[in-house]
UniProtKB/TrEMBL annotation:
Residues 15-146, 158-287 form the EamA domain. The chain crosses the membrane at residues 12-33, 45-66, 78-98, 104-123, 132-151, 157-174, 181-204, 216-234, 246-267, 273-290. It is found in: Membrane. Pfam families: EamA. The lineage of its organism: Bacteria, Pseudomonadati, Pseudomonadota, Gammaproteobacteria, Oceanospirillales. Coiled coil: none annotated. Belongs to the EamA transporter family. It is a multi-pass membrane protein. Keywords: Membrane, Transmembrane, Transmembrane helix. This is Permease of the drug/metabolite transporter (DMT) superfamily protein.
Amino acid sequence: MSHSTSLHKPLNLFKADLLLLLVTVLAAISWMFSKEALAEFPPLLFIGTRFLLAGLLLTIPGFKPLTRLTKKQWKASAGVGVLFGAAMSFWIIGLFSAKHLGEGSFITSLSVVLVPLVSWLLFRDSISRSNWIALPLAFTGLGLLSLQHGFQPEPSQLFFFISALLLSLTFILNGRAASHVPALALSAIQLSIVGIVALSLSAATETWPDHWTGNMWWWLGLSITVGTAARFFIQTYAQGMSSPSHAAVIMIIEPVWTSLFAAAWFGERMEPSQLFGCSLIFTALVVNRWNAVRKWLKRS
């Protein structure tokens, strides 16, 4: 093997790491864009428009793979998209009423910890020791976030948790669909279906504004291009150069970025119990992916 070839793989892995780190930043800053947009948008109208237009935008680079999909592949992709749409609808309603974006991002990140449990309950897949350790840590952290004044969880916390539960199921089914559907085509279909689901719910339950202000177009545009289309496109590209377990380690940083951005952007501050709760959830994320973390540390 030539010297240039031996260097190629480490350079690609380093490039993938930087791109995945960028993805976590884009995902976190997307929370800020969405919160700003919700000052004027009905929540379901916003998330529906955002995802539908982002999905249509991804059909440009994904046009050829889309034309080659079979009816069965379309059906599998759309099915996961409907579930993803329900998850994002709960998420945006939670964000609409949320007082702490950082807290919400940690609750939503529980989806990663819930994946093994949901997979075991529905498909009887085995659960590793690290998963069993992560679960009580995660739920203890969630309890600290919702039990500050007795058992009085805020509506936003419940919506974020339901979203996390649905996202965990989406992740499981998406993994099965992704094994036989090109990633870019799958992303384009799913984002579009999320938009259709949310817009349908919005049409039935929300009053749409008579006109859209420049501010609404600005935050919607940033959410579509930066927070959704660019984020998913870069993530798909970077994951093609890295192993899923390695990518997963970097992706757990997202709620940390979100908390930092929320503090800088909106001046959010957390009580000590909230900080401890978020720390426990983050610890659960690391423990849940401990095998991948250990491999990443050895490689580093």
